[in-house]
Amino acid sequence: MNKNKKIFIIISIFSILVLSCVLTNPNKNEYINWSKEEIQSQSSNILEKGVIGFLGEKIISNTTTTRNYIIFSIYKTEIEGEELTTLGIFKNFIPINKEKDKNKSIIKGAI
């Protein structure tokens, strides 16, 4: 295989990867839905689950900032002393940093 063909293949693979990232970069609404489901699944209190089910989207939306870098997004949600930073890429969310006040839960702080 000659050098030009190798370069073309590498550039093509890289371009496909970048295009895939751009097309599958999740938006804020997808993050809000994911976050709401995560909070509900981690809660053992029926009242908390109900509040998050009813008001969760609004609470999460109002306390979340988004930085969109085209190929991925960073979401930062801060509620009552608890901060969660999440990477959104390929229609998936990966929590990358969670700072928490040990005496509060993200749900208890919201209600």
TrEMBL record:
PROSITE patterns according to UniProt: PROKAR_LIPOPROTEIN
UniProt KW keywords: Lipoprotein
Protein name per Swiss-Prot or TrEMBL: Lipoprotein
